[in-house]
Amino acid sequence: MTNLIELNDVSIEFPVFDAKSRSFKSQVANLTRGVISSRKNNSTVMVKSLDGLSFSLSEGDKLGLIGNNGAGKSTLLKLLAGIYEPTKGTIDRKGKIVPLLDIALGMDDDSTGYQNIKLRGLLLGMSNSEIDSKIEEIASFTELGDYLDLPIRVYSTGMRVRLAFAVSTSVDPDVLLLDEIIGTGDASFLNKAKKRFEELKERAKVVVLSSHDNNVILNTCNKVLWLEGGKPKMLGEPEQVLNMYMNSVR
Question: Can you give the residue ranges of the ABC transporter domain (predicted)?
Answer without folding.
Answer: 26-249
